[in-house]
Amino acid sequence: MRATAVSPAQSTSTTYLICAVAWAIPGAGHLWLGRRQKGLTFLITLLLMFGFGLWLEGRLFPFEWSQPLVALAAFADLGMGIPFLIARGMGAGAGRVIAITYEYGNAFLIVAGLMNMLVVLDAFDVAQGRK
Amino acid sequence: MTTHIGLMAVFSLCVSIVFATLMRDEPSEQLRFGAQLLGGFILGGVILGWLLYPLPL
């Protein structure tokens, strides 16, 4: 399938399932919809960014509602889906605040999550037959 | 690698790849748009850095 071809619209339940899969595994929604080049690009780039953020000793923020900015950062981190849950489960992303790369790591982790949310929205549009 | 400019370049590269892939469909267009984005990010970062340089912190 050519990348520019508009995909046929999926049913509503399938669309939401595609969005859930796209959130859980970056790029998986596009792979499901036959956009292999885009899906693989998102998968590789976003996972690399996320791994780079952890390597730079960034923090996977907890949901602390008493600190709104921390909660927002946690929401952005959560955008990475299963990789976020695996990293959290393995105890990675504790963040070492005195590390010189700490803030850079946070930027990589947060932006990777936010961009995966954009990728989910794009998968939604493709599934709806808009692109 | 972990210099400010090095990390900024890696970050810009990743963001450029994702945005170019999101916003363009043809691989050749993605490459052109991604290169423009990457150049803009790095040039903008350097210019902004020099503009902020005289400001006291």
SSE blueprint:
The complex is a heterodimer of chains A (131) and B (57).
Chain A: H1 12-24, H2 28-32, H3 36-55, H4 68-78, H5 82-89, H6 102-127
Chain B: H1 4-23, H2 27-52
Structural class of chain A: mainly alpha
* Number of alpha- plus pi-helical segments of chain A: 6
**Topology pattern of chain B, helix = H, strand = E:** HH
Mean pLDDT level of chain A: 91
Number of H- or I-type helical stretches of chain B = 2
Total strand count of chain A, please? 0
Shape of chain B: elongated
- List low-pLDDT spans of chain A: none
- Count of DSSP strands of chain B: 0
Helix fraction of chain B by DSSP (H/I, runs of at least 4): over 70%
Tell me the distance between the termini of chain B. 26 Å
Name the average pLDDT of chain B: 93
Using the CA coordinates, give the radius of gyration of chain A: 16 Å
Distance between the termini of chain A: 13 Å
Secondary structure: helix percent of chain A:
55-70%
Derived from helix and strand composition plus strand pairing, the structural class of chain B reads mainly alpha
Seen as an oligomer or otherwise, the chain set is heterodimer
Identify the most extensive interface between protein chains. A-B, 23 and 13 residues
What percentage of the residues of chain B does DSSP assign to strands (E)?
under 5%
Strand/helix succession of chain A: HHHHHH
